[in-house]
């Protein structure tokens, strides 16, 4: 097991097309690896754009092992780092899912998660809600979980991952500039109440009539903000440490929950 995990958060505007997004991802992966990162976390729907309308999402939706996944796997292998990226996943029974996928440095798909909590009319018009709760997976000895944007604003998804033994919750997001309370208040709270790292990679810039707020954030399991970006495009690095996790978990309050009561 690696005692530390250095990761990079890519805070970026949306590219005009998946092909352009892949070119930018390739260059950013090289930069992240050169700076010592073993994992690159990208924003929600990073390969396709987020606010592109239901027809646009449907046209770009692919299976989890589709051409976009294969292209990301090639980038991950070329630069020797894992990548978490957002895309539209095909759904045979309805609108596509808003999904994120974790591909390791060998190009293997380790985890795929579909957003369970849809935000507002944009999400609901474009996507189906994910049918499954988040699950923990293991990479380099670290127990990791995936959520997407609005999911982290509810206590239950992060708590479900914590109860599965998650060390870190990775959250690709497209949070708008009007909702900075998520980064200011909710992310530190989720990290503290669950004694996990929270890694929140946000978009920035304009898309359609929406301005994304940036402020990509890494919170430690004691609720401290380890790193936070500004409003502009940036690549932020942070190191997660198992010793910090162990120290924080000495006082983990969720072990004392009263499960015999109905709240």
Share of β-strand residues: 25-35%
CATH structural class? Alpha Beta
Mean of residue pLDDT values: 96
Structural domain tally: 1
Q: Would you tell me which CATH topology applies?
A: Nitrilase/N-carbamoyl-D-aminoacid amidohydrolase
The tally of helices reads: 7
Overall body shape: globular
The name of the CATH architecture is: 4-Layer Sandwich
What's the gyration radius in Å?
17 Å
Instruction: Write down the secondary-structure element order.
Output: EHEHHEEEHEEHEHEEEEEEH
Secondary structure: helix percent? 25-40%
Strand line-up across the major sheet: 5-4-3-2-1-14
Query: How would a crystallographer describe the biggest sheet?
Result: 6 strands, mixed
CATH superfamily: Carbon-nitrogen hydrolase
Which class best fits the helix and strand makeup?
A: alpha/beta
Give the termini distance in whole angstroms. Answer: 38 Å
- State the low-pLDDT regions, or none: none
Number of beta-strand segments: 14
